Amino acid sequence: MTTPTLPRDDRAIDFWFDFSSPYGYFAAQSIDALAARYGRDVRWHAILLGVIFKATGARPLSDVPLKGAYVLYDWQRISRLTGIEYHQPSSLPISSVAAARAFLFARNRDPALAKRVARALYRAYFVEQREIQEPAVVVDVCEREGLPRAEVEQALGDERIKQALRDEVAQAEACGVFGSPFIVADGEPYFGWDRLPMLEAALARRSSLSQ
Amino acid sequence: MTTPTLPRDDRAIDFWFDFSSPYGYFAAQSIDALAARYGRDVRWHAILLGVIFKATGARPLSDVPLKGAYVLYDWQRISRLTGIEYHQPSSLPISSVAAARAFLFARNRDPALAKRVARALYRAYFVEQREIQEPAVVVDVCEREGLPRAEVEQALGDERIKQALRDEVAQAEACGVFGSPFIVADGEPYFGWDRLPMLEAALARRSSLSQ
To answer: Which chain B residue has the Cα nearest residue A177?
Structure first.
């Protein structure tokens, strides 16, 4: 696969997700622990699938006839099999712009804090049935994670944050990202929650080779 | 998931595939052995994704920007991890009408023979680089599996076989099938080669419950 901008010589793993993506939510619960088992860090990247789908012509899963019904079933099944809580949001997909901007704001401060914020936003949407398309809800969730309310409110309208998100999405596209979750490790791309076992196998193989 | 026509009270497993589908090819290599470990039979159904995609608005994987490049990579990776031979056909997708008709003709005679024919057609396309969109190639492959050449030639243009294939595709859509491979076991739908471990887990659970 020719993806010139993949960070090939880099031990960190890149993880792209959209806050409106159930499969992204499931992957977000285990990706860091999985990577840590092999001494690897994960860089999280919030993207806007709506923008990417405009380029690829794809549609949200829920809107595809027959597939829309299937994925509702699949998400409940993954929840049952993994024990990860999941409640179908009343509206999906939603605009994840505010959540993604808040994530980037948090990441500028501290990548570890940003991951906590991301998990809290995902939990708000997929467990607590909160409407994270609403900036006010995003601000609440960020405040709960320790971010100053006024600063988050300001950041959501900050032109530098807006531009940072546009850059993040453009970089994702340059890396071949077309869906959520999307992972690149050691130059190898993995699309979908169901590719995590393959990612783990590859990390294990590489880890055993280096010992 | 509301799929009224799924055969809920039936121990047989239904397996839908398109002859032009690499993930269908991979699933076809292991589905029968997987089911047999739990004393279950598999009914194979050849479908035409082109027809189904017209209804759902989906496009062939290879034609989706970025995703097209990814799946090329993914198919090689699955081949490497599973040890199943795979050579990227020069043309994909292709029309699988002739192959599907030959399969139905064989299935009318003997479902076990039809599975051998299907595996041989898949092998011709994904290993031997033969153009199974060509009726002459399909006839050759069928003959190799013991079917009389003249009868296969006649069947490919037979109105009853044509209608049987239309019925097969319509039944697949009624069962919620939107891609290949698609499996239904005990009323539960599984889309994609990567759902085989979930299928196996469900069969194992049910098998242990009934003991």
So the answer is: B66
Q: Report which residue type is found at A140.
A: D
Burial of residue B158 (CB within 10 Å: 0-12, 13-18, 19+) is middle
- Over residues A149-170, the pLDDT tens digits come to 999 999 999 999 999 999 999 9
A17 with A46: CB under 8 angstroms?
Answer: yes
State the amino acid at position B92 in one-letter form: L
H-helix or E-strand spanning residue A172: helix A159-174
Please answer yes or no on whether A194 and B189 come within 8 Å at the CB atom.
Answer: no
Rounded distance, CA B174 to CA B44, Å?
A: 16
Neighbours of B201 (CB within 10 A): 11
List Cα–Cα distances, B104 to A132, B5, B128, B132, in angstroms: 50, 21, 22, 15
User: Has residue A2 got a pLDDT over 50?
Assistant: no
CB pairs < 8 Å spanning A and B: 81
Find out whether A186 and A125 touch, Cβ atoms under 8 Å: no
CB B145 within 8 Å of CB B138: no
